[in-house]
Amino acid sequence: MALVQRKFVMSAILSRFARAYSTPVQEKDIKKSVFISQSKDIFTNLALEDWLYRNFDFTNHHVLMLWQNDPCVVIGRHQNPWLEANVPSLSSITEQGVPLARRNSGGGTVFHDQGNLNMTFFTSRNHYNRKYNLEVITRALFREYGLKLQISPRDDLTLRNCKVSGTAAKLGCPSAYHHCTLLVNTNKVHLSEALQRLDVGIETNATKSTKSKILNLCEENPKIKVPALYKVMGWEYLRTHALSVKDGGMELANQQKGFQMVNPTEKWFPGIEEIRDNLQGWEWRFGKTPKFTISRSFTVPEHLISQDVPDDLKVTMVVEGGKISDVNLYVPPGLVANGFSGNVNVITNLIGHKFSEEALDNLEWSLGALVNDKDKFVTDCVKQVMQSV
Q1: Quick one: pLDDT band at residue 198, thresholds 50, 70, 90?
Q2: Percent of the chain's residues with pLDDT above 70
Q3: Which of 57, 165, 290, 324 has the fewest other C-beta atoms within 10 Å?
Q4: E strands within the chain?
């Protein structure tokens, strides 16, 4: 595939054209482009996506952005990272670690690596059509490889009852986008390690992912490779009419704006670095987590029991904005009698700290003065709650 690499005429991208909502846009007046990001960094690509959404005029110009990332976990806007990902182990799954990102769209958690192709379909809000986009993808794979993918009721793409693509969207005014993944030869071991979570006792109203059996397209057809899919998906998009899933062939494709390699840097997209910094920051990735409560019960060791049948020790934490807002301890009477009777400082010192890292460091510092076995047991229980998510 001969990809024409050229810099944008920035004035064309930065210009805010008049939004002619009163006059419907004719299909023949809409042009299409395929943008291919040169970055493999999740935060940079999410920033590029957001920059285009905020600044580009899609009234008469629809865009398909194709992009890949190095290994990472991407959660939806309204999800809980501690419930969706194996947060404590992400840094050790690969040599470079697996960063966790939060995107601006809703939906569930996904794992990305360079065996995964990401596609973002940008249109005006008026022309948003998720089914159209999925039809383009399925038709491209059938045309090139003879694969017959199905569109599920959840708008996922499946093959042999296995999920090969997830989907999410952001609808604004005047712009909208729909993005989805395509599993080609993703490392399933890394995916499983990154997303594998046990029931950690979290109660929350955050959006929870739906687990599905997955399949790499290369398992069905070893000839399918990500580099080739840039061409396959791009040309199918360009040859399809803008508002109807009608094949216009190469004649229509050649009338479009074609392929453009884009470099998501400050020089090309002024303001993108600030967007990237915000997306990579703790306040967005973890601080935007909806309020949740985490509870644990611990059996008291026999050598610490001063009554015949003690209750379990229970620890409950409330986390808001990613920070601990309340800690409640239920200490069974059998443990209180000859030892720990509620070390208020150790527990209250956790309040206001970031859940997990900062709070755990603060707890470690507080533990230094404790020598009684019962004191240590209680504080170790609190520590286990912090480390378990």
Answers
A1: low
A2: 83
A3: 290
A4: 31-37, 61-67, 72-75, 100-102, 110-112, 116-124, 150-151, 157-159, 162-165, 167-171, 175-183, 202-204, 258-262, 292-298, 313-320, 323-330
Sign of CA pseudo-dihedral 188, 189, 193, 197: positive
Q: DSSP secondary-structure letter at 355? A: T
User: Scanning the structure block, which residue is given the tokens 């206001």?
Assistant: 352
Per 3-state DSSP, the chain is made up of helix, strand and coil in percentages (nearest 5) of 35, 25, 40
- The residues near 336 (Cβ < 8 Å, ≥ 6 apart) are 342
- Under a CB-based contact definition with an 8 Å cutoff, are residues 83 and 355 in contact? no
Q: Length of the chain in residues, anyone?
A: 389
Bridge partners, 64 (sequence order): 34, 121
Q: Is the peptide bond before 174 cis (omega within 30 degrees of 0)?
A: yes
Asked if 323 and 386 touch (Cβ cutoff 8 Å), the reply is no
Sign of CA dihedral 255, 259, 264, 265: negative
Neighbouring residues of 165: CB distance < 8 A, sequence distance ≥ 6: 137, 149, 156, 157, 180, 181, 182, 183
Residue 339 CB-half CA count within 13 A: 20
Tokens of 56: 């580009």
CB contact set of 376 (below 8 Å; sequence gap of 6+)? 367, 370
Asked whether the predicted pLDDT for residue 66 surpasses 50, the reply is yes
- Is the pLDDT at 21 greater than 50, yes or no? no
What's the distance, CA 11 to chain centroid?
Answer: 32
Cβ pair 384, 353 in contact under 8 A: no
pTM: 0.88
Beta bridge partners of residue 315, listed in sequence order: 296, 329
Contact status, residue 241 vs residue 255, Cβ threshold 8 Å: no
pLDDT digits (tens, 9 = 90+) for 225-272: 999 999 999 999 999 999 999 999 999 999 999 999 999 999 999 999
151-169 pLDDT per residue, tens: 999 999 999 999 999 999 9
Residue with tokens 């920035």: 10
pLDDT exceeds 90 at position 129 = yes
Tokens of 214: 């997955």
The answer to whether 266 and 44 are in contact (CB under 8 A) is no
Beta bridge partners of 111: 73
Q: What is the spatial distance between Cα 94 and Cα 34, in angstroms, rounded to a whole number?
A: 31
Q: Which residue has the higher pLDDT, 367 or 355?
A: 355
